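Here is the promised in-class demo. Please do not try to memorize the tokens; focus on the logic of going from shape to residues.
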């Protein structure tokens, strides 16, 4: 039986959370039971992703054909080193977030909506995993919509009614992005008669001069850019992160934009090929200026935010800029930096948003005016924020330093010293907005009228998941061999035949 299950791990990776969502509805209002069930599902998916990751380390991709229909006629799941790495990130973050959720939503989501929250989280989780693992281009769109529709509802579940406006704004922008992606996939189907990614890649090789192919490429890049919140298509992101329940903000910040970026990389490198993307379409000259602007503008705007969630949201715009900058360098070190930052940013932003969730649980909101002097009253929460902030800045011995180091190597390889300056200035700006939090929490006198004299540390069920990610930030910063070697191997494979 175990051998049979091993054969079906690719399907189980998506089917488990997808089936778990309607099953969770059968528990009715027993939210604690639903929470335990959803947590077990997330852990099972994490175990599956570890198994799949280990299997592809030999270099051979795993192919799983649904219904016995061989590709390209049937739907195929295909796991290689790239998407196995992303699966590990998404399922790992979920395995930490789901245990955190039960306590967090007690104060942030009305009781009548708490069971619905888990259903939507499982659907979103399934959609993100499916986008990552599928080998069918149209399935990418379908699973993107599953994750997106559940995300819109999740953002609106909080007690803050501004979440409804944020969800609607994201719905409009997300629908535009999804439409662009669908048009791009439709044009590829018209051109090739196929939707299987590997088959598409083979047929596209002979069509590089086609203007239809160029238009399809443009639609796909714009669609995925909107989904991953690339500057200036990021306007949905700050409100979505700021007004969503804290656990939702943590989950989305650590996974959703990363999967959208993965999907863009998959189309750019696997379907179209690095040669077509960088030599024919010259996409690096689109990404490079926008990435630099995102790093500077996102960091500067973050400095002036009075709400910590909005501050981290604008910081995410800057961090997405770093990822796009790595792609635009068009070399192995640059792409290695992008892949590293997908992993590292998931850890740092996951830790920071979970810490803010613990703060919100005790204080009621995340406004910087309510932080005065409470660093001593909530020492573990604020130490998590400080360490996560150091990682965000890129201080040595944290994961943020590893990503930026490879970005610097990629920039120096080209001799692009102005880009080196942008990376360093972006890090210095991060010091400023992180310092605002530290100053308020540790160096300003406490105001008991604002925070309450009985304020105490957050519950363990919030602190333990937060500190798991904080420790990972330090651990993978000190012992970085696993992530750097994996990212460099993937980058080398994606650039194969070009350099």
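The designed amino acids, position by position:
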């Amino acid at each position: 039986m175990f051998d049979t299950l091993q054969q079906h791990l690719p399907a189980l990776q998506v089917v488990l959370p997808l089936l778990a969502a309607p099953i969770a509805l059968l528990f009715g209002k027993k939210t604690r039971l639903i929470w335990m069930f959803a947590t077990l599902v997330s852990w099972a998916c994490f175990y599956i992703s570890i198994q799949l990751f280990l299997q592809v380390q030999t270099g051979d991709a795993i192919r799983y054909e649904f219904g016995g229909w061989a590709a390209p006629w049937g739907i195929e799941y295909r796991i290689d080193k790239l998407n196995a790495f992303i699966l590990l990130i998404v399922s790992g973050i979920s395995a930490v977030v789901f245990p955190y959720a039960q306590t967090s939503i007690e104060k942030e989501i009305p009781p009548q909506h708490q069971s619905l929250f888990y259903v939507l989280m499982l659907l979103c989780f399934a959609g993100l995993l499916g986008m990552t693992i599928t080998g069918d281009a149209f399935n990418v769109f379908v699973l993107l919509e599953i994750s997106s529709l559940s995300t819109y509802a999740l953002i609106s579940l909080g007690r803050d009614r501004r979440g409804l406006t944020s969800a609607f704004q994201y719905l409009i922008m997300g629908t535009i992005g999804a439409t662009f992606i669908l048009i791009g996939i439709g044009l590829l189907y018209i051109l090739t008669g196929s939707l299987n990614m590997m088959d598409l890649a083979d047929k596209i090789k002979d069509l590089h001069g086609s203007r239809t192919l160029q238009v399809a490429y443009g639609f796909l890049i714009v669609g995925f850019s909107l989904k991953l919140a690339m500057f200036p298509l990021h306007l949905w992101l700050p409100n979505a992160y700021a007004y969503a329940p804290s656990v939702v903000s943590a989950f989305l910040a650590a996974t959703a934009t990363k999967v959208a970026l993965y999907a863009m990389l998959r189309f750019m490198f696997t379907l179209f090929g690095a040669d077509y993307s960088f030599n024919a379409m010259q996409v690096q000259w689109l990404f490079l200026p926008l990435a630099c602007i995102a790093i500077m503008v996102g960091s500067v705007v973050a400095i002036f935010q009075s709400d910590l969630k909005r501050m981290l949201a604008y910081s995410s715009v800057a961090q997405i800029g770093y990822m796009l900058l790595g792609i635009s360098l068009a070399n192995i070190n640059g792409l290695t930096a992008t892949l590293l930052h997908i992993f590292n940013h998931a850890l740092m932003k996951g830790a920071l948003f979970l810490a803010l969730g613990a703060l919100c649980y005790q204080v009621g909101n995340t406004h910087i005016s309510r932080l005065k002097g409470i660093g001593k009253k909530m020492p573990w929460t604020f130490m998590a924020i400080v360490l996560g902030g150091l990682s965000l800045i890129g201080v040595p011995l944290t994961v943020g330093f590893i990503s930026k180091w490879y970005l610097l190597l990629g920039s120096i390889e080209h001799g692009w010293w102005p880009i080196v300056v942008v990376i360093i200035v972006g890090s210095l700006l991060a010091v400023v907005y992180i310092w605002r939090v530290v100053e308020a929490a540790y160096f300003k006198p406490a105001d008991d009228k604002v925070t309450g004299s009985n304020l105490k540390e957050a519950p363990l069920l919030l602190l333990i998941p937060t500190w798991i990610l904080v420790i990972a930030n330090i651990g993978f910063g000190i012992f970085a061999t696993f992530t750097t070697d994996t990212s460099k191997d993937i980058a080398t494979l994606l650039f194969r035949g070009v350099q």
